[in-house]
Amino acid sequence: MPWPSRKRDKGAVSDKKEPDAKIAKTEEEASDKEEEEKSTKPPAGSSKSGWKNWKKTKESDSGGEESKITYCHWLLKSEPESRLEKGVDVKFSIDDLKAEPNQTTFWDGVRNYQARNFLRAMKLGQQAFFYHSNCKEPGIVGIVKIVKEAYPDHTQFDQKDPHYDSSSRKENPKWSMVDVQFVRMTKRFIPLSEIKAHYLAHKADGGPLKNMMLFTRQRLSIQPLTQEEFDFVLSLEEEKPH
């Protein structure tokens, strides 16, 4: 299966790569904050045209009815560039996932309670964006799906793992992980700066990204998405970059 834990939450430990752990998922408290700062100035070009076109299409499909706010998709952050955490490289890009047996790995190393709860809420078959974080240009690079629901994260008991938690007990594990499988690359890289431009426009005019957690809780490495948020962001892969 996967290896070093790469995905993480700030509250969780950082990302790394281990001998037999797998993806480092990170909730870089400071990392994501840095990414947020990198994109404080959205690119020129308003998102309103895209929002209006998307809204028009969605209304024709649903009769204009607004669905209840339900989280059914996810955004998972992982670091594509090498970074040592307690001597372990937490790098884990989408290419690393594609290189895994059956293109599947476990999403370990999360040590933030809210992110952990999101992990535990994931359902088999749900899709998530694979987001490259804490790098020169953060953004969405692909789509993965949940192939195994939450179960104890073994790295919490491994004293050699950077995410070891001496306070966790096997009879009552604190931390969980899920297994994810590569689905496909997005048709193009969707940068954080572009998503933020839409978020700011939607925040002003009531668009689908107005409450997107990527900007309201930017430090979380695991974030839920509503169907509307997922659909809108996915529609961006069809547009030419600004």
Automatic annotation (TrEMBL):
Superkingdom of the organism of origin: Eukaryota
Residue ranges of the region described as Disordered: 1-65
Cellular compartment(s): Nucleus
Basic and acidic residues biased stretches: 10-28, 56-65
A GO CC annotation given for this chain: nucleus
Matches recorded under Pfam families: EVE
PANTHER family reported for this sequence: THYMOCYTE NUCLEAR PROTEIN 1 (PTHR14087)
Role noted for this protein: Specifically binds 5-hydroxymethylcytosine (5hmC), suggesting that it acts as a specific reader of 5hmC.
Protein's recorded name: Thymocyte nuclear protein 1
Species, as recorded: Glareola pratincola
Gene of this entry: Thyn1
